[in-house]
Design a protein that fits this description.
This protein is an alpha/beta fold. Helix content is about 35%, strand content about 15%. The termini are far apart.
Length: about 400
């Protein structure tokens, strides 16, 4: 069995619990008999290229508890896409620090990075084990029930729509509609989570637009008009990556990142919420507002779910356990062991990195209503245990008083 040092990094956008996964890695590595020292990548793979590693072996349990509650990415993140010419420099740093265990916390692109680095090291005769820890608020990683970070981001969305919905309801004589936009490039898990806030028909949201369903202008405006007629206002939630039937983004953004992904919040781009806002205003002549929170869903530690913090920590620890056992080329997954209606329970599993890197997980059809404008009971059974109980607010009786 291998014995040497371990290296951990965080890549891509953060979640409110990504540092809990890091804390889990540090905690398990400190107790390991096969890992001598644990280093951290400063700004992900860029730190490896530049030889900027941090010594993480010195942090005690009390410090790790603080790290678990801290938003952002403690090590610093990056979206650098590895090119062939980078690998010799990466391997040089790995050898210099005697890295035998390579762990990264991230999404699809991060899993691809781990896979490529470990494969390159093996092809050059350098033995090293690579394990991934899943992370993304989008919840679109293949092979896992959900990703660490999604429950907290889903709660952020549900509470924002719930609380913003009360504002919209009470301001309906001023603003007749409101649009809340979530992050999520190609999957509707986050906008769908807004439905967890809905207890009665009149409660927001009234319409949910998900990237899995091609945008239909006529159907959308019809649903908005119906909600306005019934409730006096309309609450709409949309994913940033919703597209028209021809595949073009509703946001009309043409800016792409280094991985070829459309940057919906890019400077100069137009958000989907802004386009929908204009569409409704032009059609009905109503006044309304849009709410685009961007990265706040990814760092709102005040709304983090304890379940999410604990599972993220456990995933980090599980990654070290797998590495110690010689298991390489896999990502830690969360497996739900409870059935709908039972108290939530989960465990850990694995999936090959190559499968995660090349697959995405959109919302299944059973979670989306036939008209494509809302979610089903099956989705709520899936999401409610992750989001947790939401606050209950008081509403005045609005029936006319008699003299």
């Amino acid at each position: 069995m291998l014995k040497g040092n371990a290296l951990v990094g965080q890549s891509g956008g953060p979640t409110s619990v990504i540092n809990s996964s890091l804390a889990g890695v540090i905690d398990a590595a400190r107790k390991s008999k096969r890992i001598d020292r644990l280093f951290g990548m400063r700004f992900a793979i860029e730190g490896v290229l530049g030889g900027h590693l941090l010594d993480l072996s010195r942090y005690d349990r009390a410090t790790l508890k603080k790290l678990q509650q801290t938003p952002g990415s403690g090590l610093g993140s990056s979206r650098l896409k590895l090119r062939d010419e980078h690998f010799p420099a990466v391997l040089k740093t790995l050898k210099k620090f005697n890295i035998r265990y390579f762990i990264m916390i991230g999404g699809n692109d991060t899993m691809d990075t781990i896979h490529r680095v470990v494969e390159y090291a093996r092809d050059t005769g350098y033995e090293m084990i690579g394990v991934g820890v899943s992370k993304t608020v989008d919840n679109d990683l293949f092979g896992t029930d959900h990703t660490p970070g999604y429950p907290s981001a889903a709660r952020y969305v549900a509470m924002s729509v719930q609380q913003g919905g009360l504002l919209s309801r009470d301001m309906q004589r001023v603003d007749q509609y409101v649009i809340f936009q979530t992050v999520g490039r190609s999957a509707g898990w986050l906008p769908a989570a807004a439905a967890c806030a809905k207890k009665n028909a009149a409660d927001p949201p009234h319409v949910i637009l998900m990237p899995e369903v091609p945008f239909d202008r006529s159907a959308f405006l019809g649903a908005v008009e119906k909600a306005h007629r019934r409730f006096g206002f309309a609450s709409i939630v949309c994913g940033e990556g919703i597209t028209n039937a021809d595949g073009s983004p509703v946001s009309a953004s043409g800016t792409k990142d280094k991985f070829g992904n459309v940057e919906f919040g890019a400077m100069g781009g137009t958000s989907a919420a802004m386009m929908l806002h204009k569409m409704i205003g032009d059609e009905f002549g109503w006044r309304g507002e849009f709410q685009v929170t961007e990265s706040l869903q990814m760092c709102a530690a005040d709304r983090a779910v304890k379940l999410d913090i604990d599972e993220a920590f456990g995933c980090g620890r599980e990654a070290v356990r797998l590495a110690e056992a010689g298991t390489s080329g896999v990502m830690v997954t969360i497996e739900r062991t409870s059935k709908p209606g039972e108290s939530y329970a989960s465990g850990f599993g694995t999936i090959e990195l190559s499968k995660v890197a090349n697959e995405e997980r959109p919302m299944p059809g059973k979670f989306i209503t036939k008209d494509g404008l809302f979610v089903t009971k099956a989705f709520l059974e899936y999401a409610n245990p992750l989001v947790g109980e939401l606050p209950e607010y008081f509403s005045l009786d609005t029936h006319k008083a008699k003299p």
